[in-house]
Amino acid sequence: MGRIRLNRKANANVLDLTNPPADFIEDPYPYYRRLRELSPLLAQPDGSYLVASHQALDSIYKDTRRFSSDKKSAFKPRFGDSPLYEHHTTSLVFNDPPLHTRVRKIMVGAMTPRAIAGMETALVVLVDTLLDELPTHTQNNELDIVTHYASQIPLNVIGNLFDMPLDEREPLRDWSLAILGALEPTISPEEKMAGDMAVVAFCDYLEKLVADRKRHPGDPETDVLTRLIQTEGEKLSQIELLQNCIFTLNAGHETTTNLIANALNSLHENPDEKQRLLNQDTIITTAIDELLRFESPNQLGNRMTTEPVSLLGKTIPEGCNLHLMIGAANRDSAVFEEGERLNLTRAPNKHLAFAGGPHSCLGLNLARMEGRIAIGRFLARYPNYRVTKQVRSHRLRFRGFTQLNLSLGD
Ligand code: HEM
């Protein structure tokens, strides 16, 4: 991949998202670089555009009037009248003001800094318990860190946020993978069916949980579900409540799993930076943001133009689907000096891993805390770990591993 030659005449072929080159999943960064350098606004065969410049993404995220998040017209032909359609068009992330503003205000109130800070002690206990148990999962001197560590942390953090019984959390990850998987640029009929079934199963489960919580309310200061229920009727309908709970449970899941596994992999591949962090653990906060920039768990977002817009020297028609290439923008040399290099003390670091503007990630402080504790405590316990096997997830929207084997070292 490193041998790609920059051919200005061939820019139309840099990348077709519905048919990406075989090596794109493994290493998308040379393609992103070509996009930025040759065509930061690239037309796709289906009339949509890829946007790869940081400055353009930043301004698009801030302008909800001209760049809509509402996916009803885009998802109708894709999902028809189906559980996936109802879910994805009811969640706040795929709506515009005023609906988005109303739901977001309620959700922000439910995820206060106090509620998040209150989770830190339990999170440290959870992480330390998982770290203690890692050697018991080792076979032939290696273990899969996604299964035994990276996915377990968000699963339990999100479960705690909604105060879900411990023995009911296991299906969450598969539901979330099936529902978010349906957002990939192309999906098979089987993947659509799996997504629909997951929405139905998740809704059934949540209906029972909500009914039970109504009978036995928790502390609204710490239990997000109780807090959301208490605004039901007044501001959130039952459907909005269920679908936004599903979205939040999903949003915090695969993304954070990937943050943790990507971070361990990036540190392994950048031993000098890993050593800096080992020598000086106080840089962990800037390190997590840099790891989020360098290998962003969420690589793609979408917006639809609501009127003809002028963007990067071209005029884009109304109703045009824009693919916001977060992974490309986060290495843009116009904003990041030596953007292709991992620099754990990078500051400022205006990465877009959590997007920006009114839809910026609602869980960003929770995710940062999870990353800080998961990576900081892992390194302190197993400083000599080595990656022994990588199996990439084949998703374009979410960058991560389905399996990442490590040897824990001496
Ligand atoms: C490393 C972990 C995470 C990453 C990289 C991430 C990334 C993102 C991004 C890029 C968006 C914007 C989507 C768009 O508008 O196009 C978003 C929105 C959102 N995220 Fe996260 N997220 C993470 C963790 C979490 C967690 C832990 C939660 C909650 C528990 C969460 C809840 C949300 C919600 C509710 C939204 C919708 C906000 C809105 O539309 O107003 N996320 N996230």
Largest sheet: 5 strands, mixed
The CATH homologous superfamily name equals Cytochrome P450
Q: What's the shape?
A: globular
Bound molecules: protoporphyrin IX containing FE
Strand content: 5-15%
Extract low-pLDDT stretches: 1-10
Give me the number of helical elements: 18
Taking strands numbered 1, 2, ... along the chain, how are they ordered across the largest sheet? 1-2-8-5-3
Distance between the termini: 34 Å
Report helical residue fraction: 40-55%
- The count of strands amounts to 10
The second-level CATH architecture is: Orthogonal Bundle
CATH class: Mainly Alpha
User: In the CATH scheme, what's the topology name?
Assistant: Cytochrome p450
- Please provide the ordered H/E string of secondary-structure elements: HEEHEHHHHHEHHHHHHHHHEEEEHHEE
Radius of gyration, in angstroms, nearest whole number: 21 Å
